[in-house]
Amino acid sequence: MAEYELAHLETGIMKPSIFCGFDTDHILLVPLCFGSDIMHITAINTSDLLLPLWRGTFRAKTTDDKSTWAWAVLMKATWKAHGSLITDVTPFLPEKINSGYKAWEWLLYLYGMAPATLYGILPEPYWSHFCHLAQGLHLMQQYHISKSDLIEGHHHLLNFADEFGELYYQHRIDQLHFVQPWLHSITHIAVRPYEAQVLLHYLSDNNVHVTSAPLITRWAHLRLPNGQVAWSAWKENAMSKQPRMARNVKLLIDGKTTVAEVLFYFNMMLHDEEKTFAFVSEFSQPHTDLFENLSQTVFACRYRGDASLKLVEVHTIQSVVAMIPHNFPGIDGVLFYLVERPGLDIIRMSGVEEEGILDEE
């Protein structure tokens, strides 16, 4: 297969974009000019999953009994009554619901009428769960959005995505196909503003004062001096199959050891010097009782996500580590305990280095 064919397969890009014809003085370069596909996510993708689930028409495996679907309530007479109710509200709408623009119609229905008309029909906790999606996307689609709305909307979308697995997928192999890519995509709609805020704060701390965050180009992985290849959440989350996770790293900053999840890497000029950074989410400090009472052998932390975003220079990364989720008896919530590769320095001295390819087993 030719190199350009491999590129087609990997990226889905078959030919130059029409946007390449714009004068570069009036448009951001491809792909920076493309935002999130929020129209199809909010209007088409959501309805293609949720309505068939609620109507009990979504495809099911032979081992999955639809009669056990507690959320499948929009069936037969209930579905007809719901349709009649939606028809009856059309005179109260300032614009026609059958405008010919399906995305617009779905937006009106899903985020305007469905939260109200499904109250008392879609049982708990499914109705409240759907309201997280409706409120989150309603906030995100404002023409002007405040920082507080951005944060609130992001939390609603995170709650919806996290709880979907518990309520619908239920960690069952025969319901795994319920989990569609848009469920992950909605958790990133508000990520870029968070990134810009962290970047601006870092620049200010380093006496670089700008009015907006500079454009950056993301990199997916980094080879460390010890021969390991550190990957990123940006790349691993885009894989078609769950890879062996290699995005958690041990950091050494000012003599203090911490662990962080790398979101992505990028280069940036700072005081006329090009530096390479990692955008990370830092884990908490290790649980004191486990760390001190077990001879400092169990380094178990809490994952803090967007609450602990920061920039670090890549020279502070010491190694790639595993952070494994575990429920420790007597401790509330999930902790992630550290596992390091034994004999890493010895392996490095022998000349063995890791391949820069993710294992998707």
Which blocks of ≥5 consecutive residues have pLDDT under 50?
A: 345-352, 357-361
Q: Percentage of helical residues?
A: 25-40%
The gross shape turns out to be globular
How large is the share of residues in beta strands? 15-25%
* Strand/helix succession: HHHHHHHHEEHEEEHEEEEEH
End-to-end span in angstroms? 23 Å
What can be said about the biggest beta sheet?
Answer: 5 strands, antiparallel
Spatial sequence of strands, sheet with the most strands: 7-5-4-3-8
Radius of gyration: 24 Å
- Category by helix and strand content: alpha+beta
Number of E-type strands: 10
Give the overall pLDDT as a whole number: 83
Count of runs of 4 or more consecutive helical residues: 11
Description:
By secondary structure, the chain is α+β, with helices and mostly antiparallel strands. It has 11 helices and 10 strands. The strands form 3 sheets. Strands 7-5-4-3-8 form a 5-stranded antiparallel beta sheet. It has a 3-stranded antiparallel beta sheet with strand order 6-10-9, with no helix packed on it. Helix 2 crosses helix 4 and helix 4 (102-117) crosses helix 5. The radius of gyration is 24 Å and the shape is globular.
What would a concise description of this structure say?
With 361 residues, the chain is of the alpha+beta class.
